[in-house]
Amino acid sequence: MRAGPVSAVVRPPGSKSLTNRALVTASLARGVSRIHDPLEADDTQAMRQGLRSLGVSIDDNDNPWLVLGGGGQLLAPVGEVDAGEAGTVARFLTAVAVLAPRAVTIDGRGRLRLRPMEELVVALESMGVKVTHQSGHLPITVGGGGLKGGRVEVDPSRSSQFVSALLLVAPMAATDTEVVMTAPPVSRPYLISTLEVMTAFGAEVEDAGDSFRVAATGYRSAHFEVEADASAAVYPLVAAAITGGIVAIDGIPETSTQPDLALLPVLKAMGCTVTRHPHRIVLSGPEEGLKAIDVDMNGAPDAAVVAAVACLFADGESRIRNIGNLRLKESDRLTALEVELTRVGGKARVEGDDLVIQPGSLVPTLVKTYRDHRIAMAFALVGLRQSGIVIDGPDCVAKTWPTYFDVLARL
């Protein structure tokens, strides 16, 4: 437990979302690309290993990482492609593997085998790709030989990653590709991130709102600067919010479109002061405590986890709406939040796809993380206000921020 408000300057690690998207596009480009300030963590390691197994040369000994792309000329691995526990890796490489000369099997571990893949499978099959799967789950075997292009429909209501996977591989198709979404996408802002990375590597994409047209131009090599991760920045920001302190986050441009920056207006509504600078975010928490909120966080479900923890310190009942997608993450985060918020002394209940939180008298307790990095990082913040908070299995933060607890200790 900390005695007073936090005060710190933090540079979070590179964005996982941008790092993994850049690794894919650089691998499909022709020539050497340089990825500056990437994230070194379990999920990006899984992406690098998966791409290497498909014949891509990646030198990650120094910053920047060097990626030697072959213009979409991939190899079929001897064994399976191991996606680890990363949804982005499983979904993106399932689409990329279509470019291999023969069939490729993608598999993963833990809860990843339970996470949905069916919508991507259906979309690939509609494009003439032969796919073998386990009732819409990993392991999945994708027939190689290339992608023909054309019109493809995909349902993104459970994950926008299905759309991103198709978009990322579309420039390598034989003809132009039109990706049509058959429902409103969950976490739509992540599609903007996908388009930005593709464009940085020379892709030509038209965004029509509910569809995207991608020219069959391939990718060109590039120098790509990875922004600091907004998905990581939310934790020190909330640390300042709940302690009435001040935190500066470096490395996120004022023009950034990272989805979890949607937490900033939420924290403003709770009474925090937020100032944006060209490459810095400064947040000051209110001295008098946080205000309760009623917000829709469908576009930033990862940030909703730590927002729920912040609501433990608000002045009344809060509601976070439209976050049913949390059930399909590394854990059933919606249920985990309901259980663990109550375990630490608050009151929480799930109503449909909403989470309702009431503050209470906090108590020392062992917080279960369900091997979920975001649950661990979010609930560790409770320890800034309540002694005796113990995080079960804290090493799970290595998935996206291996040094998180070192940074938290410095706060």
Q: What does the model show?
A:
The chain has 411 residues and is an alpha/beta fold. The chain folds into 2 domains: 16-211, UDP-n-acetylglucosamine1-carboxyvinyl-transferase, Chain (Alpha-beta prism); 228-410, Enolpyruvate transferase domain (UDP-n-acetylglucosamine1-carboxyvinyl-transferase, Chain), CATH 3.65.10.10. It is 30% helix and 22% strand. The chain has 12 helices and 22 strands. It has a 4-stranded mixed β-sheet with strand order 1-14-16-15, covered by helices on one side. The chain has a 4-stranded mixed β-sheet with strand order 3-4-2-13, covered by helices on one side. A 4-stranded mixed β-sheet has the order 5-6-8-7. Helix 9 packs parallel to helix 11 (373-380). It is globular, with a radius of gyration of 21 Å. The N and C termini lie close together (11 Å).
